[in-house]
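USER: Write out one fold?

ASSISTANT:
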Amino acid sequence: MDPPESSKHAAARRKELPHLPEHMRRFDPEVQAWVDVAKERWDKVLADLSKETAPTPESFFLRARALEGKGKTAEAINAYAGVYTLNFGGSTKLTEKALKRSITLYAVLGNEDRVGETRAQAKIYKELFGAGGLCEGASSEVVAL
């Protein structure tokens, strides 16, 4: 969940690649995408993830970060939804972070037609992670909902 740290780990592992058998010298697309998120190379993140065979909660999260970075707020919100929709039994940190970012983006989007979605996001967050409260950084509009 820490792109700069992930990027450092990937760089360290790449130095070891020549010591591995040929078939083990590949990184999953998500690994390269974390590196590119750390460097804010949003188009590269999307290109990295186009190589995945099946979407995962992690790839939805990375795609959402890239879309958010490109200013495509509505698309990012939809991609974040892929994280917590698919992420049953996976990392709760990933789900929590996706919900926080999604809630924050609803305020940026400012689309009255999506108030119901915003309310639902806030409720899910409060029940799963917020101990009855909203995430830090939630806008006054979201709190009012």
Summary: The first helix runs from residue 3 to 16. The radius of gyration is 17 Å. The chain has a mean pLDDT of 79.
